[in-house]
Specification:
By secondary structure, the chain is mainly alpha-helical. Helix content is 77%, strand content 0%. The protein has a single domain, classed as Amino acid/polyamine transporter I, CATH 1.20.1740.10. Keywords: Membrane, Transmembrane, Transmembrane helix.
Length: 382
């Protein structure tokens, strides 16, 4: 049976950690939302984001729950749990490589953000972001969740500020919404699109979220006090994240004149609202990227070593140095346009395995690494 008690403080921390992880450089810079949602036109983009939310709630329900119930020693074991030994191993290593590619993309996003505002060399900015994130990951899982759990709500707050500013601007000029939305759909806008179909973009973005966060969702679920608490935090986090997407779609549409051609659309919007907000938002974006990078390098390295060990520190340092080198030379918007859609497509088959195991045949693909009965925190077997 599942433990029914819920620690509200813990749920808030886990929701914050979810938002901090998801609101990485792709989202916080605005490139992700621009290519997956805003590029379809504002209204269709918003509908597409709601479709994304529905899928992500299913993913979080399953992965947060199984993370709490199974308490995997290696979070990547979730692939074997859902897909069986052989397909699970393929997905495990594919996920590691894919997540590392997204990590490099986020490093490039951090460098592009600081370069756009200060004019500092992209390579130096990328290196600083990488090293600070590495230092945080070395602190371990629990400390990381505590840190980024505080950062997540701050990110949501500033997305709300940008959204409110967009609505105020829209009130003074209602034609901006429809006019810019129509212009975005033309080739003259120059906007890269993740998919040629607005409906599919929302579905694809959900599968990107699945593959991007599988191991982190499991780790987050493990940190909860019960299955119910784990699932609730994942689903609430999805709602807040979707709200941030919708606000950003509106803002990018209303302020498209300043967004066009920018590597970091959100920063351009913030500077248009007021230069002071631009400076503050730069700090927020850097925090977004820092928290996501810290989480990702920890999750990736956990495949090779347990955190808080010398081996973990050595592997994390090596992966960070390689990421710094690659992230300093590749353009951010092109990385997003190539890597993120591929990530989404790769999640489709894995989703089918989740549906089959979770909702159709729970005895499929028996998990062999730990034959002990699952034990809840109150000591009762289930």
């Amino acid at each position: 049976m599942e433990e029914e008690s819920i620690n509200i403080k813990k749920v808030i921390i886990l929701v914050g950690a979810y938002c901090a992880y998801m609101l990485g450089s792709g989202f916080s810079t605005g490139q992700e939302v621009l290519q997956f949602f805003t590029s379809s036109g504002a209204t269709k983009g918003i509908i597409s984001s709601i479709i994304f939310m529905a899928f992500m709630m299913i993913f979080c329900y399953a992965l947060y729950g199984v993370g709490q119930k199974m308490q995997f020693e290696d979070p990547y074991d979730v692939f074997e749990y859902y897909c069986g030994k052989y397909i699970g191993k393929i997905y495990t290593w594919y996920s590691v490589v894919l997540l590392y590619g997204i990590y490099v993309t986020m490093l490039a996003g951090g460098g592009a953000t600081i370069h756009q505002y200060y004019g500092a060399p992209t390579s130096i900015a990328t290196c600083i972001m990488a090293l600070v994130s590495l230092a945080t990951a070395i602190l371990g899982v629990e400390k990381l969740i505590d840190i980024i759990g505080v950062i997540g709500p701050i990110k949501i707050l500033f997305m709300i500020i940008i959204g409110v500013a967009a609505f105020i601007t829209l009130a003074g000029n209602p034609n901006l919404y429809s006019g810019n939305s129509a212009f975005i759909l033309t080739t003259a806008s120059g906007v890269k699109t993740a998919s040629g179909n607005w409906l599919w973009s929302g579905v694809l973005y959900a599968f990107l979220g699945l593959m991007f966060g599988v191991s982190f969702y499991v780790i987050n679920g493990q940190s909860a006090g019960s299955v119910k608490e784990a699932r609730l935090s994942g689903m609430i986090g999805t709602v807040f994240y979707t709200l941030a997407i919708i606000l950003l779609i509106v803002a990018e549409t209303v302020y498209f004149d300043v967004v066009k051609g920018q590597q970091v659309p959100t920063l351009a919007i913030a500077k248009r609202i007021t230069p002071i907000l631009g400076l503050i938002f730069l700090i927020i974006i850097v925090l977004c990227i820092y928290s996501a990078l810290s989480s990702m390098i920890l999750v990736i390295t956990r495949k090779f070593a347990v955190d808080k060990t010398k081996k973990f520190n050595f592997v994390a340092l090596g992966l960070t140095l390689i990421g710094m080198l690659v992230g300093s030379v590749l353009p951010f918007d092109k990385l997003v346009n190539i890597l993120y859609p591929i990530s989404g497509y790769s999640g489709i088959v894995f989703f089918l395995f989740i549906i089959y195991k979770e909702f159709i045949n729970n005895n499929a693909f028996p998990y062999r690494k730990n034959d002990k009965k699952i034990v809840e925190n109150n000591g009762k077997t289930i």
